[in-house]
Amino acid sequence: MIVGGEPELALLLHIFPEGVEELDGAFAVYADEPPIGFDVVEVEDVREGWEDGWRAFHHGVTIGRLWVGPPWEDVPDGAIPVVVDPGRAFGTGAHPTTRLCLELLQEVEPSSLVDVGCGSGVLSIAAAKLGFAPVAVLDLDEVALEVTAENAVANGVEVELVTAPPAAELAVMNIALDVVEAILPTLEVPRAITSGYLDRDTPTAVGWVSVERRVLDGWGADLLEFRP
Questions:
Q1: Cβ neighbour number for residue 199 with a 10 Å cutoff
Q2: Any idea where the domains of the chain sit in the sequence?
Q3: Residues 175-192: what's their mean pLDDT?
Q4: pLDDT tens digits, residue range 196-207?
Q5: Range list of H helices, 43-191
């Protein structure tokens, strides 16, 4: 059991997509080993029927024109669905950094796009649904690439799995701040949507400036432009 509130729930869903549920004012996470770095107050064996309880805490969210949610929920009328089954890779739409990226994604003109650190493919699939093309995805985790490919097929969109970032008009990165800062100078893109860091942080890389800033629940996201 891990003590926390709504922001903590969003973070736990991001870290433990295999299962999180609320029990007696705290959160239970399902993992092979007790999580390190959290306020753990109890560890116990998984009880029978936990799968149904886990599903009850994965709900769809509406972000602008998009709805991101699991396949067992109904899509709201008029929304563009991004259906993702929480499972083997990070990214369900619940975390504030994902929401912020999706908000910014809807404010730029569709173009070619590369999703660096694609996770479950939420951002790249949403981009394809919004008219971005071609959409390239890459991740160091082979499971993430497999899951993104599966989710893309389930959503009826095309993404290209690549091993290095291609030239594109826009990059999206929802990863750690130091990784964002390290990757930005290597990209052949004029713009990037970045998140995965706290609202007190802003990516710093030569030539890159933030032209729009969003914050939510202590997290930040930026629309960056390269200005040599």
A1: 16
A2: 2-55, 97-226
A3: 97
A4: 999 999 999 999
A5: 50-55, 96-105, 122-129, 142-154, 177-183
